[in-house]
Structure formats: C-alpha cells, structure tokens
Amino acid sequence: MNKKFIGVPTKLLILIVSTLLFLAVGFSSLSYWRLQQDYSEFQQNNTVQGQLQVNLHNDILRTKLTVWLESFTDLIQLSEQDDFSTLTKQLEKQYDALQLHLNVEDIWLVDDNQNILFATNDFPQAVRNNITQVFRLQEPEHRIYCPKSCKLLLSLPLLNKNGDMVVVTMSTSLVDMLFALKTTLDRDVAVIRLASKVDSGMNTSDAQVISASNMTLTESLLALGKPTDTLSAMLEQGLQIDSDNNSYLLNLLELAKQGNQGFFLVLIDDVTAFRAKNDAYQLRFILSLSLIFSLLAGFVYFISSPFTKRLLLLSNALPLLAQKKFDEFRQVDLKRPRMFADELDVLARSSQELSFELEQLNLVVEQKTKELENIAMYDLLTGLPNRNMLNYQLRKSLANIARHKSGVAVLFLDLDDFKKVNDSNGHNIGDKLLIQAAERVRVSVGEIDLASRFGGDEFVIVLSHLKSIDEAIEVAERVLLQFKESIKLGSNIFYVSTSIGIAYTESVTEKSDDLISHADIAMYEAKDNGGGQYHVYHQEMFQRVAHRVMLEGEVRQALAKQQFSLSLQPQICAKTKKLYGFEALLRWQHPDRGMISPEDFIPILENSQHMIELGYWIIRRCFELTKAINKYGLADIRIAINLSAGQFIDANLPHFLRELLSEFSLSAHSFELELTEQTLVKDMDHTIAMMQTLKKIGFSFAIDDFGTGYSSLAYLKKMPVDVIKIDKSFVFGMLENHSDFQIITSTIAMVKNLGLMVVAEGVETKAQLRSLSENDCDIIQGYYYSKPIPEKELFVMLDKQTTEGYWRVAKELPDNLSAGKSA
Ligand code: C2E
Ligand code: CA
Ligand code: CA
C-alpha cells in the first residue's frame, strides 16, 4: 500500500479553503442576487415612473382640451341652439387659436349620421373608430394614434338643445409631451416603432425612431441592441446596452398598436455608474477573498508546520526504539517551550515513557535469554555443561586438531549400579549422589578440559591438546581413584564405581558423534567386564557391537519365524538309572547359517531386551514340553531351564512364572532353574531376593558350571540352592588330570555335606560314570547316556531308551562310543 503523501497542513488548508470557497460562493451569489434585484427594481421603478408620467401628461393634455371645449360650447351656448352650424363656424374660427395655444393639429366634427361637419384634414380610420365608440358609449374617448408621428386623439360628445349629438375630435402632437417627460424624468426619451415578429426574437436595430430627445444617442443605442426573446421580456426587463464606455438601460412603454406595428416610448437611462459600482464591488469582493485566503493559508502553515515538523521528527526517531537505541531516542528534542501543551506533547511524553519501559523490558529479556542460554548449555542438577555444550565444545576441539597437531579424547562414564541406588533409596538421594559424582568428575579434569553431564548417570569428559592417549588414560585413572572413596549422604554411605570408555583420535575428519559413540561402546565393554574400570575403544569393539545389533535384529525375526526350538538332554540317577529329568537347551535353525550354537549368540545377547523376550519363549516352551512329557506318562520329571543374568534381573519373572503355572496347572517342583556363577555374583543381594521369591513358589535352583567362577561355600550357604552342577571341563579330564579329579571329589563331598544334590555334566565315558558313581555323584548328564534330543524326536527316543522311567542300559560299549544320538 504505497499511498501518496499529503501533509496535515495541506489537508487542513484544503479543508479551510474549500469551506471558505463554499461560503464565498454562497455570499457572493447572495449579494449578486441582491444587486440584480436592486437593478431590476430600479428598472421597474423607471418603467412605472415613466408610465405614470406619460399618463399624467396625457391627462393634462386631455383635461386642457376638454376644459377648453367645455368653455367653448358654453360660450357659443350650444345647449340653446337647434343645430350645430354655430358650432361648426366657431370651431373653424378657433382652429388657429387652438393650433397656437393647445398644439391641436387637426379637428374633425362629425354628426350622428357620420356626416363630417367640419374637418381640417382627411378622415382616417382611427379617427372614425374613435368617433363610433363615442356615439356608442356616449362618453369621451381618447387614444394615441401614430400615422407618421404619434398623436393624441381625443373625441368628445356635444349635445344641442334638441339633444342631438355631434362628436368633436382633436388630434394633438406628443412631441411636446416628449420634451416635458425628458424634463420631469431627467433622462432622454424617444418614441420608436417596432414590428413585432412572432417566431424570432425582437431586435431593436429594426426599430424606427419617430422622435427623440437625443436622436443620435437613441439611434446608436438601438443599432447596438441584440435580439431579445420576446416583446414581453423586453417590456418587463428593459434592454441593457453597452456602448463605448457607457452602459444604458432602455425601458419600453407601449403607446399604441397598429396592425403588427407597435409604438413605444423609450426611456433611456445612463447606468454606467451603476454598472461601475457593481463591477467595483465584484473586484473588491474577489480581492478581499483572495487576501483572506492567502492570510489563512499562511496562518494554517504557520500553526501546523511546527506540529508536522515535530511529528516527522518523532516518526523518524521511533525506529531507534526497535534498534534498542533508547538513549539516542531520548536525546531527540520533541518538546517546545510553550505555554500550553498539545497532543504532540502528550505523544512525546508517552513515547519517552515507552522508551524507558522498552529499555526495562529489553533488560529483562536479555537477562532471561542469558538464563535460557544457561539452561540450554548447562545441566540444572549438577551445574555441569550439558549435552548441547558438549557437542559444541567437542566440535570445536575436533576442528582444532589440524591447527594444534594434537589428539582429542572422549571419556564416557557411566556409574555402576546407579539404578539400584535410585530404586532403593529414592530419587532424592539419587540426585544428591549424582551431584557428588559430578563434583568428582569435575575435579578430575583440568581447567581447559570439559566435564559434562550426558544424561542420567552418564558423564562425558572431553580432553584436547593431547600428545597421546596416555594422557587420557591418566585422567580415567584419576576419575576411578576419585570414586574409590565412599560418598556420604546423611547417615547413608555409598560405594559408587564407574565404568569408563575412552575414545581417542588425531584424525581431522573424525566426527563428534562417532567419537562419543565409540567411547560409549568402550564403556559397555568396561561394564561387561565387571565395571569400575576403563576400556579403550578399538575397532573390534565396534565390530562386536555391530554383530550384536545384527544378531538382535535376527533374533526378533527368528522368534517370529519359529526358527528356535529346544533340545532336551536327559539327566539320569547314577545309582538307579532312573530318569531324573532333562536340561532344556536352546537350538536356532538359521535358514542361511544352519544350526547356530547357543554359545554363539546367548552371551552376545546377554543383558539385552531381546534375550529377555527369548527367555520367556524358552520358559513357555519348557512348560509345554513338561505338560507333554507328563502326558507321555513320565509324571515325576524335572525340567532344568537355563536362565541368563538379564532374565533374572527382570522384576516381572515371578509374575510370569506364576501365570504359567496356573495356565498349565503344573507344579513348580517340576522345574529346576539353572543359574551360572557369573549370574550369582553380578548382583548378589538382588539375586538372593529373587531366588527366595521363586523358591517360595516351589522352584528349585541349580548352580551351573560350578567350579569355573568365584563360587565359594560361604555364599552357597546364604542361597536357597538345591543342586550343584559340576562343570563339564572338570569331568572331561577327571581321569587324566589329578587336580580335576580332586576338585570333583571334594566338591561332591562338600555339597553333600550341605545337603545338596550333585549333577555331573559332560559325562561321555563309562569310566567317568563309574568314577563319579563311586564318589557319590547323584545325577549324570552327558553324551554317555544321550546327546540333547531335539524336541520333535523326544518321544520316539524315550520309547526306545526308557522302560517305565528307567534308562535302558545297553550292552557294555567301549569308551567314547556313547549311545546317544546326535543333537
Ligand atoms: P550348559 O548349560 O553348560 O549346557 C551344557 C552344554 O554341554 C550343552 O551345550 C550340551 O549340549 C553340552 N554337553 C552335554 N553333555 C555333553 C557331553 O557329554 N560332552 C560334551 N562335549 N558336551 C556336552 P549347548 O547345548 O551347546 O549349550 C551351551 C550353553 O548355552 C549352555 O551351557 C548354556 O550356558 C547355554 N544355553 C543353552 N540353552 C540355553 C537356554 O535355553 N538358556 C540359556 N540362558 N542358556 C542356554
Ligand atoms: Ca546348563
Ligand atoms: Ca554347564
């Protein structure tokens, strides 16, 4: 919207001028109308006056003639005479005197038979008409009659003694009257003849002057006259004629009409002065109007220009507010020393106030922005830089590698078992612990290094300008040392360790995200190795992680595609050969890679959600198989299920197992849960609590791979364990290796002492079996009796190998040629 700019003064000026113009036009047309009115009044007065004078003179003339005639008839005693002969004679005698004194031109004496008794001239029709009228009305009759010049015709009836009537008619010239009128009216007069036309307008130039007090003037004026509309308009308004420097008003009075000829008395007024007055008035009016206009324009400009100047000043200054130049804005002088304030002063004052308020607001915004930046860059709980800051600083450090020719290291820290502290002591204590931990991390690094909180119980340290990775390792060791000391929170004492992954680079192309994720991978390695230590990232770690990720994906698919199955390996009572139960072992028939050993993927999936999912599938399958075995006729059979550490940490496990028990209406006594020593030592308290919970339900526990880990009798006593499984590695060499044999025999003795049962796995030969039996081993599991039997073949195999729950012992076979089929 780009409108044309018109300033306020201009607008005001336009407004005022148009108002004035309107008023001026109104007033001037009013006064012009007044003038016109005056003029036409003047003109009408003239006409009326003229008419009156004409009538007056007419009357005087008639009266004079009438008086003379009356006195004349009296003198000749007409009323006592029988005829009119005396009258005729006397009239003839008096004619000269009449001509001389009363300007009578002609006399006609006519009797009632239309006989002319006396006439000084012809007997024209006009006279005849006049006379006829008198005879008819018996009254005097007069008219103006203009044959060549205008005359007054006066006819009077006269009676004799007998009552006979004659009419005497006298005509007298009007020239005298004309001069008398000129004198009395003080203006020139004329008599003219005009032919009245019907269609076109009247034109005075056609007029013929019959007589005039000023012949030249009259003729020149009439020649100048322009055509007028009608005769009546001419009679009413008169004629305005301008000649040379003078103006004249011609008023016409009709004297007589003969045929289409009219005879008019023209009154000529010199209205030059009048016109001049009119013109002067108009000039004065225009002059004073323009003077007022210009004065007003000046006044408006004078009043409004400082106003608009200040307004423009203010509008030019306002953008300064947006530019936050508040001081500069306030220096703009918007005030004027004035007695009275106006709207602009109010506006100036409010904009000043606005500038102060905006400045205040700006300060607040700046402060809040800083706070927000802090929130954005720093962790609220620990006050350490947060992830945003870390990313920013790490990118900066990596960018500097080329310049400083040095290395950058990222240390990824994760507190060990922090979740437990949070779960058992509450988040409040957890937070306090994190603050302390953060402080320990912070004091372990130098001024130029960055210690940040990555999230949860994870911290990331960035070290720059390193000569070698050794400097990073030094820092890691310092951190580990810091965490050796206990953390005291109120009455609680915590021992918190941390796992550290170190990733180091001297490469210019290294990406910050990659470096962090490498350190993260190394940290997991440290954690998998028991925590409280550091690991340096190397390429294999990444491959392991990649492999793990791939496996996780495959396992999920394998579950859906039912590529998993179980094989059951029989466990047999050493003494009675009774079938004690089976150990359920997982099998994965991969479509491309064939049969994959559980040892190749279970350790890798350990701790992952996928393993828990897979674990639940295994447990459910074991329940189904148990049900089937019971149906087959083997009621008192125990199925051993291997549980990984991750499964055992899952709080949902007891609930899941209870649900299955009721779903399949099986007793928990039918199941033995195998835990490795590693699982046991990982989180002792938690494991014991879980074992106790499950024990209450009725499940029994076996310690798998006994002898390979840190198992000690001390903690065996604390746990609700029922079975100890001697690891197959001892069994394999028991007959050749004396120490293995010793371990087996002492373990059996000790376990028996505790009232527990012993299972030997990996029994492949009759010799091993014999030795174990002799040493009081309760249960034998191994290829000697049977390899793990695929679930599909289970019942065929049982048919073949068992009789009423007892394992059929084949003829003595040479060692190493065990009876079991391949799994
Ligand atoms: P483990 O629990 O120690 O299982 C015993 C392993 O020894 C089985 O290997 C079994 O086939 C093998 N074995 C049994 N008798 C003999 C023998 O006479 N000679 C020899 N050389 N080997 C024998 P497998 O089935 O490959 O399982 C390996 C490991 O995978 C298991 O060791 C166990 O730790 C794990 N595993 C298997 N199934 C599961 C499962 O369902 N859940 C969990 N969490 N782990 C499982
Ligand atoms: Ca096992
Ligand atoms: Ca084992």
From TrEMBL:
Residue span, EAL domain: 548-802
Record bears the keyword Cell membrane: no
Superkingdom to which the source organism belongs: Bacteria
Membrane-spanning segments: 12-33, 285-304
Name used for this protein in its record: Diguanylate cyclase/phosphodiesterase
Single GO MF annotation: catalytic activity
NCBIfam families assigned to the protein according to its UniProt record, in alphabetical order: GGDEF
